[in-house]
Automatic annotation (TrEMBL), chains A, E:
Alphabetical UniProt keywords: Cell membrane, Membrane, Transmembrane, Transmembrane helix, Transport
Organism annotation: Lactiplantibacillus mudanjiangensis
UniProt-annotated location(s): Cell membrane
Pfam families found in the cross-reference section: BPD_transp_1
Residue ranges occupied by any ABC transmembrane type-1 domain in the UniProt entry: 19-213
Membrane topology: Multi-pass membrane protein
Similarity comment text for this entry: Belongs to the binding-protein-dependent transport system permease family. CysTW subfamily.
Gene3D superfamilies linked to this entry: MetI-like (1.10.3720.10)
Keyword Amino-acid biosynthesis: no
Gene Ontology process terms (BP): D-methionine transmembrane transport
Entry-linked PROSITE patterns: ABC_TM1
Protein name: Methionine ABC transporter permease [Lactobacillus pentosus]
TrEMBL record, chains C, D:
InterPro entries for this protein: AAA+_ATPase (IPR003593), ABC_transporter-like_ATP-bd (IPR003439), ABC_transporter-like_CS (IPR017871), ACT-like_dom_sf (IPR045865), MetN_ABC (IPR041701), MetN_ABC_transporter-like (IPR050086), NIL_domain (IPR018449), P-loop_NTPase (IPR027417)
Keyword Cell membrane carried by entry: yes
Transmembrane segments: none
PANTHER family recorded: AMINO ACID IMPORT ATP-BINDING PROTEIN (PTHR43166), METHIONINE IMPORT ATP-BINDING PROTEIN METN (PTHR43166:SF30)
Organism for this UniProt entry: Lactiplantibacillus mudanjiangensis
Single Gene Ontology MF annotation: ATP binding
Protein name: Amino acid ABC transporter, ATP-binding protein [Lactobacillus plantarum subsp. plantarum ST-III]
């Protein structure tokens, strides 16, 4: 053991902390970005042409905004939104501060995924709901989000896994995490065992997310 | 065929050689200037400069021969690399400069004023981190373990009387987060790009002496090219007066010229 | 409240996707009385579905005004329009059930957001499920149901809000005769007991005959004929209506089938194959029966499709007449005013049919 | 080649999603002769769709053997199974058209990958589109079509490979009578001229009567009755079959309707309302007509649904009899062996129906 | 102009080159990753339970492999696959060398997206094709890929935009590109105008991709 992973053994507590940091970053930014992305995604779907609240100008603005946010490389995003981070969190470094850029880095992506997922909800069902006098809000919650749930979960899995990938870059602002260990210790110091173990833990997280997600999809699907 | 090629290559290189220099940041700028300089032409060198922003990749590329010579690393980084990559060794060609690392702060103006429990940002990259820790020890803020080496880390802090807290960051973000911490350790390349003058703006910085010699930057090449004449010429070229004048002007004298033989490191 | 619960004025719907332009509905004016059961019939693609979708503005008409319950829908604010839509239940051709909800959940859906306790909601939905014979399937998901079962869920869902108007777009197309009959009886009961106005699209004449009071016949986006069902059936004016009535009664198919088994050439000299058409024979006395006694002819009915609409006999009959054919035929011809028409089926007629 | 082109032996299909277990098909044995038109009828959810999906192994049976054209399908290698499937055209209840292809593209699809020139493919597909009356829609995309139009495309697609067997799962449910008649005539022609064996699910008795030779009646996953169409119609044994035949002939609805307009109490003393049932009256002489002359009674037909199946008169009739009722009735009763049954419609019958 | 973007004006040729590099990286890695991702995505769909070539072991392996590849942070991926890069391209640095890690960084993601997109193809149509004796290959090409085309294009847009984001990290191995300019010049040296202009160019690329994609979706959709 000691021969295989000499450096890792000395870093037990770092690994535990890094794992917690990654979990913290992933969980919180997933929740916040989830809400924002879901909101934006739903807005994109309902305002688009033939949507239930079709509104060309709003759609164009939201669509462009989404692309705009998606175009910014993460490292630049870190810098660009640091005033916002500072305002919201009080600091621009550390694990909590990383939540802001992580959220901004992932939620436009998630919004796009949500949009694509909801586009597959049967228009006939939406129409049936309209014929029953459902309000737009009711259609969003009771039709789109409910009927689209299996697909929403699928895109959420994809997004959370992408988010775990993104947290590996948050080391740049002192957020720590497994990616930081893998890169700044394992990789930069050539301690391959550290990289490997960090990667394996990340992998386990990814698998847990995927398996849990698949299970959820199965649970909520009825076809 | 091999012999013919080899000879023709040698002959050609005696007169004129094309060298790919891999670099990043301010080194990249310096070498772009050098490539265009009169001196380079005079020495018969055609220099191509390539920006590669990841040190590990740059060293690997140098060892593989994708890059002929690299100009970005310090002696200590170079040694670490060679220790961990015995199969793809590099060789140093010569010294270039020392960039003093500095401790910067927007909150305090002197080391003494750093309060108890202060947060210090330090690079997450190991060679920069160990260098920063050594600097903090020098400033009397912490005490490191006796066997503190080139890859020493936060774990090696023996005593921390002021209960300093450390935040590891990507070293390029230093100037950006200066306001969010009590003090930050910033390497000079990064400081310069952030418009920080190490000699003027830092509250404490490295000086050039035996204790900091491992921080001197070098030119490195693949081990097998160690004696290639044209590569060795780059060292001379770097120290030419015109070029030094340019560097001094451009970097406000923060890149302290170091023109020492390699044996200097082994003393 | 106007006596017309639904008034469509000068409705046209033009689809304009890319280069193709489809006039799905053209200049339709339609008034439907409160409490009516109004059938809309027409061949596939005639524009029936498009027209009824206009009634609750699921399909915005290209031109024209839609008035339901005295409200001109196009002038309503969104919230008011939604309120108005709740008065119009709709059963879709393709069910449009939510896959994510159970059968019960689907039926409950329209009640969500209304001020009804959860218990009452469930009770109401369950009562309707019982009505359509699916109480046992309350907790099943729609994708586990057969086509007919799905359609019954859709029907229960459309009824759960006690709508004043019920639009049914081929709701019974996928149902077996028993279920169809049950559903139609149900619609009729809703109409009679609760005064629900029903608009019913179908391609089954039998459905129209069974429960509709009025019928409109559509062709190429236009209503080409309309009126009380009996009138339209007994005195069809437009060629398509006639065609419809004839095809739906299966007379042609029957003639073809009969003339395949009974060769005309094998008939005896005193025998003839005759097609009778009854339209509005008002007396309670049987004309054919009377005449057959009078002329001592034997009438062997091979095919008959006769029914009563508003107390009048309507339909077709094919029979072999044996006996004094000449006298019988002449007598029948004299009774044309009593709504009996005959046509001799000879080789020529048979040939004409097989083309 | 076996004379049975399709042989299902001991087929059961059990769906087992989660806790619920549905026995959709149970112990079905079914042989279908080459060249037959075999109808399958049954109420919604009986398992008809599931059963026919077993024929080309779209649905793997839980137990049992499927033999088509002498090949036991479950033993075939995938490539051979695919080849075998090409011999079985299928028309689905829900069309299943490809949205990404034009109407023509959909019909051409089954020919792709076969050694036929593009020109021939198109020609063949176009000919079939003409057959189903959609030649003008060749370049339209399916979503622009009405339900009936879509179904016709699906029919053309199923026919384009010249299959030996054609399975139609409620292919005419969404069609109007004219299109239905045209499609049925087409199926009949394919059967007669090309010897295509047809398996036809429907819930319309009329469809079975029109073109099927044999029929199987399904209930709760089992075949409860089967045989030649005439036999099953004329002498239904299973209660469900009787129920089916009766409901489909609309006799009950007719009695209800008639007794609403004609009050039994208003009938004269020498009048009676009588329901006749004809099952397999083989003679060419009209029993009713003969008797009405013999007893000088007047027969006024209010409702009739009589048709010929294999040369036998089958059906129902409701008429008001005026005259020597007692003698007439006694005479009719004596002729029961000739396939005429009567039932007096009195207040009791009417009351029984409305329950 | 000079006052607004002082540094940019001096770097015209660098910007042109960087734009070309970004285009080159994006285009080529998109094509290669497109093929790989499409293949893997299709395999995931057909081998999954109830798929047309349902095969539990294959599916499990492919599914896990996809997650495995998706778990690796890009910078580590660079290092891990550098032997492969060296073997394929002959070098591990430069724009062309970056294609290998870019492809590996994006294709598992794309595969997941393709999988999600193809899951929405109507099973009834797949079944109809099976009933017509279509071979699995025919069903893949003539049904899944054709019927799923609008959705495939949508996920391709998402992926290409993600890929553009990923190219901004390829500076680590000397690939250049707009992201590298934005980060290593604009960001690191506080030459905000450089960052801004680089970002605007990236944005334009993103918009072009989105608009072209939307147009394509419209063209191939018939509903
Ligand atoms: N969204 C649409 N875009 C273009 N054309 C359409 C659209 N919807 C329907 N159509 C066309 O309008 C015409 C009328 O269609 P509609 O669905 O109203 O017919 P229908 O009478 O209900 O037929 P069916 O009995 O087959 O359901 C058809 O020719 C159809 O092709
Ligand atoms: N995939 C499935 N999973 C579970 N149960 C199913 C499934 N498919 C069908 N069933 C059930 O099997 C039974 C038979 O269904 P099937 O579709 O064969 O009926 P059907 O006779 O074709 O009815 P219809 O005339 O309404 O189309 C039904 O009770 C249905 O709920
Ligand atoms: Mg319709
Ligand atoms: Mg069915």
């Amino acid at each position: 053991m000691a021969a295989l992973i000499p450096n890792v053994l000395q870093m037990k507590s770092e690994f535990i902390q890094a794992t917690l940091e990654t979990l913290y970053m992933t969980a919180f930014s997933a929740i916040i970005a989830g809400v924002l992305g879901l909101g934006l995604g739903v807005l994109l779907v309902v305002t688009q042409p033939h949507g239930i609240l079709a509104d060309q100008p709003s759609y164009q603005i939201l669509d462009k905004l989404t692309n705009l946010l998606r175009s910014v490389p993460f490292i630049i995003l870190l810098a660009v939104i640091s005033p916002l981070t500072s305002y919201l969190v009080g600091t621009t470094v550390g694990t909590t501060a990383s939540l802001v850029p992580l959220v901004f880095g992932i939620f436009p992506f998630y919004a796009r995924q949500v949009q694509n997922a909801l586009l597959d909800v049967d228009q006939g069902i939406v129409e049936a709901a309209q014929s029953m006098g459902s309000s737009p809000l009711a259609i969003i919650f009771r039709v789109y989000l409910k009927e689209g749930l299996p697909d929403l979960i699928r895109v959420s899995i994809v997004t959370v896994i992408s988010l775990i990938g993104l947290t590996t870059m948050a080391g740049a602002i002192g957020a720590g995490g497994l990616g930081d260990i893998a890169i700044s210790i394992g990789y930069a110091r050539f301690e391959n065992d550290v990289t490997l173990v960090a990667m394996v833990i990340i992998l386990v997280l990814v698998f847990v997310v995927q398996i849990f997600g698949d299970w959820l999809v199965k649970r909520v699907s009825h076809d | 065929v091999g012999i013919h090629e080899l000879t023709s290559y040698t002959v050609q290189s005696a007169q004129h050689a094309t060298i790919t220099v891999g670099s990043m940041g301010s080194d990249y700028d310096i070498w772009q200037h050098i490539a265009k300089s009169q001196d380079a032409k005079a020495m018969g060198l055609t220099i191509k400069v390539k920006q590669i922003t990841d040190g590990v990749q740059l060293n690997k590329a140098t060892a593989d021969g994708d890059v002929d010579v690299n100009a970005f690393e310090s002696w200590s980084y170079y040694e670490t690399y060679n220790r961990q990559n015995p199969k793809e060794k590099l060789a140093a060609l010569g010294t270039t400069y020392l960039e003093p690392m500095g401790l910067y702060s927007k909150k305090v103006t002197s080391v003494e004023a750093i309060p108890d429990g202060a947060t210090i940002a330090i690079a997450d990259n190991p060679s920069q981190a160990s260098r920063g820790l050594l600097l903090l020890q020098k400033a009397g803020l912490i005490k490191l373990s006796a066997n503190f080496g080139a890859l020493g880390s936060l774990k090696d802090i023996k005593r921390n009387p002021r209960h300093l807290k450390f935040k590891q960051i990507d070293d390029t973000t230093g100037p950006r987060i200066i306001k969010n911490v009590d003090a930050v350790l910033i390497s000079n390349t990064v400081a310069l790009e952030g418009h920080l003058h190490v000699l003027r703006d830092s509250i404490y910085h490295e000086s050039f002496n035996k204790s900091t010699k491992a921080n001197v930057n070098i030119l490195a090449t693949a081990a097998k090219n160690k004696h290639r004449a044209s590569y060795l010429k780059l060292v001379k070229l770097y120290h030419k007066a015109d070029i030094q004048k340019y560097i001094k002007q451009k970097y406000y004298g923060t890149k302290i010229n170091v023109n020492k033989p390699l044996s200097y490191f082994n003393d | 409240m106007s006596e017309h619960i639904i008034e469509l004025a000068d409705i046209s719907v033009t689809f304009n996707d890319g280069q193709q332009k489809v006039n799905a509905v053209q200049d339709v004016n339609l008034q439907i009385d409160t409490g009516d059961i109004y059938g809309i019939i027409g061949y596939s693609g005639a524009g029936k579905s498009t027209l009824v979708r206009v009634i609750n503005l699921l399909q915005m008409p290209t031109t024209g005004r839609v008035t339901v319950n005295g409200q001109q829908l196009q002038t309503l604010a969104p919230a008011a329009l939604r309120q108005a839509r709740k008065q119009v239940g709709m059963i879709f051709q393709h069910f449009n059930l939510m896959q994510s909800r159970t059968v019960l959940g689907n039926v409950i859906y329209p009640l969500l957001g209304q001020k009804i306790s959860k218990r009452d909601r469930q009770a109401k939905a369950l009562a309707l499920l019982k009505l359509v014979g699916l109480a046992d399937y309350a907790d099943t998901y729609p994708n586990k149901l057969s086509g007919g079962q799905k359609q019954r869920v859709a029907i229960a869902r459309a009824l759960v809000t006690d709508p004043q108007v019920l639009i049914s777009d081929e709701a019974t197309s996928a149902l077996d005769p028993k279920t169809t009959a049950a559903i139609l009886a149900l619609l009729q009961r809703l109409n009679r007991e609760l005064g629900v106005t029903i608009v019913l699209i179908t391609h089954e004449m039998q459905v129209i005959k069974s429960i509709c009071h009025h019928v409109a016949v559509m062709e190429n986006g236009r209503i080409v004929e309309r009126g009380p069902v009996a009138q339209v059936f007994t005195a069809p004016k437009a060629p398509i209506t006639l065609d419809f009535v004839e095809t739906s009664t299966n007379v042609r198919a029957a003639i073809q089938r009969i003339t395949r088994t009974i060769k005309l050439s094998e008939l005896a000299a005193n025998q003839e194959l005759i097609a009778f058409k009854f339209i509005g024979q008002a007396t309670k006395k049987g004309v054919i029966s009377q005449l057959s006694q009078e002329f001592k002819v034997d009438v062997n009915i091979l095919f008959a499709n006769i029914d009563q609409i508003d107390g009048q006999n309507v339909g077709d009959m094919i029979a072999i007449i044996t006996g004094d054919i000449t006298g019988f035929n002449a007598a029948v011809a004299r009774r044309a005013d009593q709504g009996v028409h005959t046509r001799l089926i000879d080789e020529q007629v048979v040939k004409g049919l097989s083309d």
